[in-house]
Design brief:
This protein has 86 residues and is of the alpha+beta class. Helix content is 35%, strand content 40%. It has 3 helices and 5 strands. A 5-stranded mixed sheet has the order 1-5-4-3-2. A hairpin with a 3-residue loop joins strand 3 and strand 4.
Length: 86
């Protein structure tokens, strides 16, 4: 999957930072440098699990090579196991 642009609404960015302690930079780095594994959830909604500064799960919509982030959080043990299997 090719992601050229990462979009995060300001309110979503604040929520992710305060509730999950993940910065915008971590999201960008995870999607570009964290060797993400992608799983389609439905229609244009995807989950990415990446290993950058620890395992991070990112839920986003993907359209026209742009990812609009809905949420991001530290990956669960099951998600880490999935990442390592792929």
């Amino acid at each position: 999957m090719r992601i050229r642009k990462i979009l995060v609404d300001e309110e979503i960015e604040e929520k992710i930072l305060y509730e999950h302690l993940i910065t915008r930079e971590e999201i960008d780095d995870a999607l570009h440098q964290g060797k993400p594994k992608f799983l389609k959830i439905r229609n244009s909604l995807y989950m990415a699990i990446a290993n950058y500064n620890g395992y991070i799960t990112i839920i986003f919509e993907h359209e026209k090579q742009a990812a609009t982030v809905k949420t991001a959080y530290r990956s669960s043990d099951a998600q880490i196991k999935y990442y390592k299997k792929k």
